[in-house]
Amino acid sequence: MLKIELHNLWFHANHGLYEEEKVLGGDFMLDVEILYKPKATPHHISETVDYSAVYSLIKSHMAKPEPLLETLAMNITNDILHKFQLAEEVSLSIKKINPPMIGFTGNVSVTYTAKREQ
Question: What fold, for 2-102?
Fold first, then answer.
């Protein structure tokens, strides 16, 4: 298996349940891992998973507000599996930096992993 990874993707976006999050937005960090089994040693972008195209897909999802990180993680993961036929397994983590909770310090995250159905 070959693994394509994108780490520490930083976005300011308007995901969340609360009005302040929808208006002011917040900071999010994403990590994604894509596993696939190449038919041979890749020598052309068409023989692998194009990580710049994966980034564009993630960026477009991050621009569409979602109330729940769970929904966002599942939508992005499933879209990667759908659009990149070589991808066999995708794991995506979304971290909400400084969530709006009184007295809370730290961050929260959601991770979703899905495999291509055979």
Answer: GTP Cyclohydrolase I, domain 2 (3.30.1130)
